[in-house]
Specification:
Layout lengths: L4 E2 L5 E6 L2 E4 H22 L10 H24 L2 H6 L14 H19 L3 H26 L13 E2 L9 H15 L5 H7 L4 H8 L8 H23 L6 H17 L15 H22 L14
Helix pairs in contact: 1-2, 1-5, 2-4, 4-5, 5-9, 5-10, 6-8, 9-10, 10-11
């Protein structure tokens, strides 16, 4: 039997006391916005942009606030926690409890860029082409933050690199949870709850060893998704944007299709965090619509081609 590693990473990069401090999840969002800004700025300075370089900062800020944050939170409420949201709409503002949707963030950014293009009279697909090149880097940081938090873990696995995640305690049968609580109390000497165990485990090797037998080895699917949706998709879109002459909207379509396909593949290794829709996980079901949207961008780009300044149209070549 392999001695599988029990996840023990602290969600806080810097803790000031109790549950107050700087979390890796928050830093991941900052890194995502910074990456989107610098990628867009680099492309704008090379001429691959319908807005000037000095407008990139304001545009990325709007995408971050109105697209990613509001769209991601609203998407989570609608796609994954709708009954509770209907019962108490104020849950939307309780962001400290977690809950963001990648699909919601993508839709939110698409809506904001559509408004921005209308407001400033610029080509909407061309506006999005640079933005989606940097988007996978944001997905990478987000998935790595999921891994550090020990959340959204994978399905059971016997692979040598499989891991055990203490947050699985929430999904265990009640009798197993009672046994874990009794074992943890013997170690700590005080009554504890499941959240206490999860919070203490990163700092207590004895506690991790005690609960290890109750946990299931699982795929570190967060890392799989970080590499697929993040690194691989970024490289693909960067090459498509900078090395291949394509009309506005082609790269945006490639992002929607690429993310939809890679997310659907990654879901095969990820423990479903919501009910199935037919034979599909919720993530796979939502990805179908992204793929359809991506195909729509491709069709529109082919029927009415336009190009950024550094890419002259066919009539000029």
């Amino acid at each position: 039997m392999l001695a599988y590693w029990v996840h023990s990473l602290d969600p806080f990069a810097l803790r000031f006391g109790g549950d107050f401090g700087i979390r890796w999840y928050g830093l991941a969002y900052l890194a995502a916005f910074a990456a989107a800004y610098f990628v867009y700025l680099r492309l704008a300075r090379r001429g691959f942009s319908v807005i000037p370089a000095d407008k990139v900062g304001d545009f990325i800020t709007g995408c971050a606030v109105f697209g990613v944050l509001l769209g991601g939170r609203l998407g989570y409420m609608l796609f994954y926690d709708f009954p509770a949201f209907l019962h108490n709409p104020l849950l939307f503002f309780r962001v400290w409890e977690g809950g963001m949707s990648a699909h919601g963030g993508i839709i939110g950014v698409a809506a904001y860029t559509l408004w921005y293009a209308w407001r400033h009279r610029v080509n909407w697909p061309g506006l999005g082409d640079n933005l989606v090149v940097g988007a996978p880097l944001g997905l990478f940081f987000g998935r790595m933050a999921n891994f550090i938090n020990g959340e959204l873990y994978g399905r059971p696995s016997t692979a040598p690199w499989a891991m055990k995640f203490p947050k699985e305690i929430h999904d265990l049968p009640l009798d197993a949870q009672r046994d874990i609580l009794q074992t943890a109390q013997q170690i700590t000497g005080t009554p504890v709850g499941t959240e206490d165990i999860i919070a203490t485990a990163p700092h207590s090797p004895a506690l991790r060893e005690a609960i290890s037998g109750f946990l299931t080895p699982r795929h570190p699917s967060q890392i799989y998704e970080a590499l697929l949706e993040g690194v691989f998709l970024f490289i693909l879109l960067w090459i498509l944007r900078t090395k291949i002459r394509t009309p506005n909207g082609t790269v945006t379509g490639a992002f929607f299709i690429g993310y939809g396909l890679l997310r659907s593949f990654g879901e095969m290794f990820r423990e479903p965090d919501s009910e199935y829709v037919g034979m599909l996980t919720r993530g796979q079901f939502l990805s179908v619509f992204l793929i359809i949207i991506g195909l729509g961008f491709w069709i529109a780009a082919r029927l009415r081609p336009s190009y950024p300044p550094s890419m002259p149209s066919k009539s000029r070549t």
